[in-house]
Amino acid sequence: MTGQATKVVALCGGVGGAKLAYGLSRLLADGELAIVVNTGDDFEHLGLHISPDIDSVTYALAELDDPERGWGRRGESWRFMEALGELGGETWFQLGDLDLATHIERTRRLAAGESLSSVTEGLCRKLGVRARILPMSDASVRTVVESDQGSLAFQHYFVRERCAPRIRGLHFEGAETAQPTAAVLEALSSDALTAVVICPSNPYLSVDPMLAVPDLRQAVAAAEAPVVAVTPIVGGRAIKGPADKIMRELGHAPSPLTVAQHYGALIDGFVADVRDASGTDAGAYPTPVTFADTIMKGPAERKRLAWEVMCFAESLRSPA
Ligand code: FO1
Fold this sequence. Notes:
The chain is of the alpha/beta class. It has helices at 15-27, 52-61, 79-86, 97-111, 116-126, 154-160, 182-188, 203-211, 214-222, 243-249, 256-263, 299-317; strands at residues 8-12, 33-37, 43-45, 48-50, 132-135, 142-147, 150-153, 167-173, 195-198, 227-230, 233-234, 237-238, 269-273, 289-292. The protein has one domain (8-316): Rossmann fold, CATH 3.40.50. The two termini are 36 Å apart.
């Protein structure tokens, strides 16, 4: 889509990031928000193309997400999985009956020659999502975990092995040659841009695959608006998922400072949690830091944090 005055670009992984993306979507008008989503978790499974992070963000914005699991659809049933199990099929990756429709329709349209961006736009329209959800690239990028159990495809590490293997490193197959989509580059170069928000997603598993696409990283660095990252670590622990475990395995203390240092010169500001305010040496951060309640239990908290992040970005644009 062209000609839209994008004000905020959010870089987002799955469940954790989707909450802030939801908050931003409820504050901004249609067309003002573009959400660039990680596709490094995508994989082919049971003959279907699964895009877990795109679906987590789509379902969250459509208010179809399951609040307990975070992934998949609310009110889900599992008859397909039960039947597959009875036939001796692979059941380690749970596909609910409603969710299955998304994967089947996506797979059909990709096989017919549509791009992932176009399929995503179409599915979003059908589900009533008005913000733009943009896959980071239409080319295949696949996250591979180097672990004490060897190289593991992302979902084998994350779901099948429940993140138990010790991580030694990560690489993102295809990232070096992948191009961001035109829509992603257009959003990041919008004249109306006021903030680029790195959502509280896992920096290593969810944000790094996006930043590993050279022209995407370059476009974030060149954006005319402040780049603000929000911590996924509170009180030394990940709000959800294995970010703290991975930090320890890679030799870092699990802390908001580690996250800020990980993004380094790419960011212009950092949002840490109020629970980490005491004992924080703000001077140790590579950028200005602000403190907010980053634990988003419901829609009101998601909107409030989104508002605080946008105000912080505004203060970085026009320092007092
Ligand atoms: N996560 C799980 O922990 N177990 C599952 O069985 C599972 C199935 C699943 C199906 C569709 C989908 O879109 C996501 C699913 N996820 C599941 C979540 C997903 O694999 C991860 O949360 C993300 O890839 C990490 O952001």
